[in-house]
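Field reference: sequence -> structure
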Amino acid sequence: MAEDKPDIAWRVVGGLVGLVTAWGARKILAFAWKKATGKEPPIDTESPEVSMGEAIGYAVVMGVGMSVAQIVVNRTAKKRYDAWKALRQVTPGQ
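Structure field:
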């Protein structure tokens, strides 16, 4: 069975959800990093002033954190969008 292509509305909604999720996750992860380490997150992980351990740790935290946030939010948004779309198909004209 061929999977339907996402409609244009979901593309727009999904894109906006992705942007907001990335922005919010980055802010939350930076706050958590500061609370856990007592230091600001490294801006340039390639700088010699940032230790190798700190650069790798930050990359791991950001990579995993951003991926998990995207998965959770995108799945939730898609379920809600599909439910809304199904409801609109059942009650046309309202």
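Note: The chain is about 75% helix and 0% strand.
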